[in-house]
Amino acid sequence: MKVLITGASGFVGKNLQLHLSERKDVELVCFTRANSVTELPVLLEQVDFVFHLAGVNRPQDPAEFTIGNADLTHELSRAIATLAESTGKKVPVVYTSSTQATLDNPYGQSKRQAEQALQAIATSHGVPVHLFRLPNVFGKWCKPNYNSAVATFCHNIARDLQIQVNDPAAPLNLVYVDDVIERFVQLMDGADGAFDADGFATLMPQYTTTVGEVASLIQAFKDSRSTLVTERVGSGLVRALYATYVSYLPVESFTYTVPQHGDPRGVFVEMLKTPDCGQFSFFTAHPGITRGGHYHHTKTEKFLVIKGQARFKFRHMQTGENHELCTSGDKAEIVETVPGWTHDITNIGSDELIVMLWANEIFDRQRPDTYACPL
Asked: Would 201 be classed as within a structural domain?
């Protein structure tokens, strides 16, 4: 399949290019500001699908709204209609309009006129047209200090620059660029279009939040490097915002250090803490060194020896039953501690022992649930 992307060098266009370049069955034809509208008829003859992403949203001269949005789309629509008339080929189009198309301002008017041009060829020539009235789109490669609060907040906070929030309670409707691209590709691959009551293509998920909430979340991502406590970044809006924030990190911030606690036994390093799923850390032990020698009432832990050889000893605090096992970095074997059993770990090898550790709760110095009882 050969695909034409107008606005290929824009924010959504760059993301779409990357996704489609991963497929061997898709050949891309890119239309940018360097191209002329006179090229459109020839380009359309070659392609099977059009993503019309080109547009103008913050020009110096308001007249550019008409040129970059309405006029360009009229020319594209005319070329598609002419092709349909001469060859019968009806090239499907996905168009990125805006929720602002309902507003009576130069930008909204130009986007609405563009919609109307495409709706006209859908009616007159049966061309498949999918019009998306997108809210604020966010994700990697969106230009900061331009027209995206998310991009600006991510860029500035990642660089310790101030952000400006005039009204924290101001509503913000968002869609994530990867979700946008996923729906676009589904349509390209022949999925049925889903439309609202007004005939516009629908997209899910959409997130309703506030400017203040987004700013606070992005600041929390920044702060997690010092607190080590991560936000719940595994799903939904927070997942998408975190991926976006990290994409704005300058290269010198790709790494950061965490506290390392050392004593004659070795070192102990906390890596990551979660709000409700415990924490991750690792420790080392020199040959012959024993660590642990305590029990817990409720806390549980998982140990994974990464390097070296270790002997784990356990004793039941009520019955006195003993248990011993050995494991090493040569075997991916989890050793789990059990409440009510005291336990210790000894380096029985000749090299340094390195052990990864997960505990089901963040260590609380006021309530450590850790009681010394050496074996």
From this structure: no
